[in-house]
Amino acid sequence: MRILLIQPPSSKVYQVFLPLGLAYIAGSLLRKGHQVTVWDINALRLSHRAVQRKIKIEGGLFDLVGVSGLTGDYQYMEWLLTAFKKAHPKTKTVVGGYLASALPSAIMEHTPTDFVIVGEGEEAVVDLAEGLSSRADLSGIDGLYSRAASGQIRASSPRARVNDLDRLPFPPWDLFPMDFYLRDRHAGFGEHLDEGEAGLVSLMASRGCPFDCIYCDHTIKGYKPRYRSVENVVDEIKTLLDRYGSRIRRFYFWDDILIWDRSWVEGFCHSLLAREMSIKWTCNAHVNRVEPRLMGLMKDAGCQNVRFGIESGSQRILDSLNKGVRVETALEALHTCLDAGLSLTLYVMVGMEGENEVTIEETVRFFDRLVTPLNVYHFKKIHFFLLTPFPGTRLYEESKRKGLITGPDTFLKRTCDAYYDIPLNISGQTNRELRLLKKTLEDRVNGILQRETNQLHNLLIDIKSHRI
Fold first, then answer.
1. DSSP state letters, 114-159
2. Residue 47 burial by Cβ neighbours in a 10 Å radius (0-12, 13-18, 19+)
3. Is the distance from CB of 191 to CB of 282 less than 8 angstroms?
4. Nearest CA to 367 among 338, 388, 409?
């Protein structure tokens, strides 16, 4: 089949990265002999008018069009699917990704798509393409929502997750605008490199997160962590280096918690060192899995930056989020990373039920205890988000039960950029008060960083002038 895969424009926090989910879909289809074309609208920054023109001129060339997206992409996805169906009504469309997996019925009801794939899509999309090619009965394809001849929505049995991730092919990088990914500086995302250059490449070594935070979506990856083999990941890194060489400045692991399996991480680090692969990389971690020897080994193997969802310095808020973390554990873990010479990217969340001046002050004190003149330059970026009940999360379901969310279509048409928007406020504050709390926290944490930076400069001046 001739298949088109589309990545819609995302909110600026995600900027221009290789969309790994779509890349694995593309690789799986190619391996089965299908012709695949990719439109990464997010990378190319195409206007509505430009996309409409492409749909009109090129859209009729394809037998199947696949679209992936997040919650904040819903309105664009709805527009895109409608535009495609209007221009090419006989072309089949399928939607996948986090939003589709969380709300498959709503996507079927409120957009003109023909199919929705729920869960990991690599095998399901191949089955769908094969079924459409042979005009077979599609009702036996696990993980698929479709429409009966009567128009009724049909849901098949859930599809089992891919346990052997080594079965997945490497992403077909040549189908994607790699030049855009490699030259984007990601300044707003806080991943700008020390040299001020671009060159981030996306990787995935594992899927799944065993924690049960109320704001996280487990519908695709699940709770049980599954890892590719160390050899498989290292081979992918070598392949990328052979293709793009020095244009790659850092490898960016998107795994929920790369360091969950400490033995895997140790094996990965030892493999990089044994093969003398001098690379730089960054990953997501969890404070409960940090220990000094592991972080030191990661640093030796080229890890420069570790990203943590801290969320709050208030124990009451952490408990309400079901974070499973103690404030003191978080502080100790972050200091361990800093002592190992690793830089930090941190994520803070404002707006949980009961958020107020007291909890904000507790978070300020957390950073006051964390940042010192000797480590201040190791904080690459601190992101401040507003709590958002994304579909697929416990928070979303609880909000529905309380009557705070009455219909998915209405909710999804609210803007959902967690940096700026408040699609649903459960904090007990007014929207104006909540925004003020967030701004207060940002200003005071940034003030701490500036204070410690000034102290470091004064210390260096004293040393230089031999006054101490």
1. SEEE-S--HHHHHHHHHHHHHT---TT-TTEEEE-TTS-EEE-PPP
2. exposed
3. yes
4. 338
pLDDT digits (tens, 9 = 90+) for 372-421: 999 999 999 999 999 999 999 999 999 999 999 988 888 888 777 888 88
Residue count of the chain: 468
Taking the CB of residue 166, how many other CB atoms lie within 10 A of it? 13
Q: Considering the entire predicted model, what is its pTM?
A: 0.93
Percent composition of the chain: helix, strand, coil (DSSP 3-state, to 5): 45, 15, 40
| CA pair distance 342, 377, nearest whole angstrom | 11
Collect the ranges in the chain with pLDDT lower than 70.
11-15, 184-197, 466-468
Q: What residues contact 132, with CB distance under 8 A and at least 6 apart?
A: 1, 63, 64, 92, 138
Show the domains of the chain with their CATH numbers: 2-155 (3.40.50.2300), 185-387+427-464 (3.80.30.20)
Q: Exposure of 316 by Cβ count < 10 A (0-12 exposed, 13-18 middle, 19+ buried)?
A: middle
Q: Which residue has the tokens 């790699």?
A: 178
